[in-house]
Amino acid sequence: MSGATKTLRMGLIGLGSMGRHHARVIRETPGMELVALADPAGDAWGVAGDLEVLPDVEALIAAGIDAALVAVPTVYHEDVALALAAAGVHTMVEKPIAATADAGRRVAQAFEDAGLVGAVGYVERCNPALLEARRRIADGELGEVYQIATSRQGPFPGRISDVGVVKDLATHDVDLTAWLAQSPYASVSAHVTHRSGRDHEDMVVATGRLENGIIVNHLVNWLSPRKERQTVITGERGAFVADTGAGDLTFYANGKVPTEWDRIAAFRGVSEGDMIRYAIAKREPLRVEQENFRDAVLGTGDHIVTMAEGVHTLTVVEGILESAATGQSVHLQPADVAAVAG
Prior knowledge:
InterPro entries: Gfo/Idh/MocA-like_OxRdtase_N, Gfo/Idh/MocA_Oxidoreductases, GFO_IDH_MocA-like_dom, NAD(P)-bd_dom_sf. Residues 131-240 form the GFO/IDH/MocA-like oxidoreductase domain. This protein is α/β, with parallel strands linked by helices. It is built from ten helices and 15 strands. It folds into two domains: 8-124 and 287-304, 3-Layer(aba) Sandwich (Rossmann fold), CATH 3.40.50; 125-280 and 312-338, Dihydrodipicolinate Reductase, domain 2. Helices cover 32% and strands 26% of the residues. The strands form two sheets. The protein has a nine-stranded mixed β-sheet. A six-stranded parallel β-sheet has the order 3-2-1-4-5-6, with helices on both faces. The longest helix has 20 residues, at 307-326. It is globular, with a radius of gyration of 21 Å.
């Protein structure tokens, strides 16, 4: 499908806490027309407007759609996505791609075999602070990157019932880290804990190493009264600190002024230099994500999160949970690493 003048007939399945936002953004995005909605649980947020709320994915497909957005609970991702692939519908699935990496592989393979655009909704990649950081890293402004550390903490989200903090939140950090570094994960090690009385974990500390040698750290929980969304990329020339909640990017440069304090001067490291907070355009990440999906379907862009990348992220997430359960580091299989190419 090509041609910038085409308007995509969009379908949306899942009208919950994320689906309602997707409905709004699809309606606001040029080149997209929301023509069908589906949710067996109805329209709790009242987003349907003049559209009938359809009961299932089959009814959505029957409405004659070009592309679809899947925002149902994770456990249903595979069945819904496979039905859309079989019907020839380009699809973006909210993260994670499926409930398990094996299910994700089946979904990714189905879209590849059908020659369809298949994307995964990792909206953090569209955060203005991270977009700017990635551009500057790619331009060599940090020199060699040594470490990427993320912190994603805050109160428990009432919208979550089917997964723990690893598959709900840490999956964002795994995806954005591999994307920033342009390298897949090679190994992970993690610890989790259960403090809220639920079946799923609510805190995780994970470390790892990427294929290109960058070391990473992820601190994630939903039991903190202080909400924090921060990514720190440290390299040979300084560090970028991305506050993804505010969309701000700050650069902390290595110092260039020599010290005369003997005890510090003897340490062969870096010192504090200039600090710059960049003035950057701040567009709504969800809108950028929808535009990227539209452009991929129309053949005018390639900035989506591919399903192969979605599978790699889920493989890493499962490695984190395996490491936490066994107390051992998990080394990813070559096939899972090779699925992501920068």
